[in-house]
Amino acid sequence: MTRSKKQPLRKCVVTQDMVPKQQLIRVVRNKEGEVFVDDTGKKNGRGAYLMKDLQVIEQAEKQQVLNRHLKTKVDDSIYEELRAKVKADPS
């Protein structure tokens, strides 16, 4: 009898939905205060997850959700990078 591995669930900071980690994008603020998109999902720092959906990213930017969760000012270039990743991801 083989046991299937449990999929890790994370909560989207915009929609508050619990979804598998693979369906989310992680944004991280490290100890130096740098904010960046974490492709690996394993970098050190305070992380916030967003669904891979353009509407969710737009809502996060409009409501400044990442600013609150990461406790710092998130640059517009981060939102541009998130949009580019969502557009490039076929799933």
TrEMBL record:
Could you tell me which residue ranges the YlxR domain spans? 10-83
Q: Which CDD domains does its entry note?
A: YlxR
Lineage top rank: taxon: Bacteria
> Which PANTHER family does the record cross-reference, listed alphabetically?
BLL0784 PROTEIN, YLXR DOMAIN-CONTAINING PROTEIN
Q: What is this protein called?
A: YlxR domain-containing protein
Q: Output the lineage of the source organism.
A: Bacteria, Bacillati, Bacillota, Bacilli, Bacillales
